Amino acid sequence: MKHLFRGSWSRIASTSAALIAVIALLAPCAAQATPYVVKLTQQGSNVVAAGSGEFNLTGLTYFRAVPLGIAGVLPADGYVGTGLEGSILSAYQGVSGPASFGSGGRTYASTGTGDGAALNPSWYPSTLFVPQGYVSGTALASNSVWNDASAASLGITPGIYTWTWGTATDQSFTLDAFTAVPEPAAIGMFGFGLLLLGGCLVLRRRQAGGVR
């Protein structure tokens, strides 16, 4: 009987320790802001841009409201914009980063949906565009499509380009252009899955060892 209780308490303690470890790993991530990223990928014959994340506007200087057809790229000038065309955006200045991400000229997207957001380092000073009335920390999401296009036809040099201001994690705008780097969310889920799988294997071995 003592051995039975000892084994049960051992399994409970092990399970509790595993749960505490998972919570400890996930808690800091839950509190972190999500930097804004536009990911360009080739999907069939089309180029698709998916933008998501949030901005912290602290440290930027408000310029003015701008009526802008933002869904497009101009790699030679470092301009990238996604979302609903014809959006009224607020321009904020004070961004620093790459002056270009290729040699291509301006190409408007065939379609654009969602929250408008854009980055234009060719303005002086470099300018970030966000939806009019945007409040720091609000999540944004957008999509744009260039029909019958590719990195070559758009004049984009594949790579990761990041523009920043301030020091917080959500004070950046990143263009992930045609790279194979996994998204942070996918990496996190993969790691979480491995952790659970490892915990299950440990418990199974201990249970198998106790039935003798």
Characterization of the model:
- By secondary structure, this protein is α+β, with helices and mostly antiparallel strands.
- It has two domains: 2-30 and 187-210; 33-181, no CATH class.
- Helices cover 29% and strands 34% of the residues.
- It has three helices and 13 strands.
- The protein has helices spanning 2-31, 151-154, 184-210; strands at 36-43, 46-53, 61-68, 72-74, 79-82, 87-93, 107-108, 111-114, 117-120, 127-131, 140-146, 159-164, 172-177.
- A seven-stranded antiparallel beta sheet has the order 3-6-10-9-5-4-7, with no helix packed on it. It has a six-stranded mixed beta sheet with strand order 8-11-2-1-13-12, with no helix packed on it.
- A hairpin with a 7-residue loop joins strand 12 and strand 13.
- Helix 1 runs antiparallel to helix 3 (184-210).
- The model is unreliable at 1-6, 8-30 and 189-208 (pLDDT under 50).
Helix and strand topology:
Blueprint: H1 2-31, E1 36-43, E2 46-53, E3 61-68, E4 72-74, E5 79-82, E6 87-93, E7 107-108, E8 111-114, E9 117-120, E10 127-131, E11 140-146, H2 151-154, E12 159-164, E13 172-177, H3 184-210
Parallel strand pairs: 1-13
Antiparallel strand pairs: 1-2, 2-11, 3-6, 4-5, 4-7, 5-9, 6-10, 8-11, 9-10, 12-13
Helix pairs in contact: 1-3
Order of strands in the sheet with most strands: 3-6-10-9-5-4-7
Q: Structural class of the secondary structure composition?
A: alpha+beta
The biggest sheet amounts to: 7 strands, antiparallel
Q: For the residues shown, what is the average pLDDT?
A: 79
Q: Label the overall shape.
A: globular
Please provide the ordered H/E string of secondary-structure elements: HEEEEEEEEEEEHEEH
Please work out how many helical segments DSSP would assign: 3
Quaternary structure state of the chains depicted:
single chain
Using DSSP, what is the number of strands?
13
What would you report as the Rg, rounded to the nearest angstrom?
Answer: 23 Å
Low-pLDDT windows of residues? 1-6, 8-30, 189-208
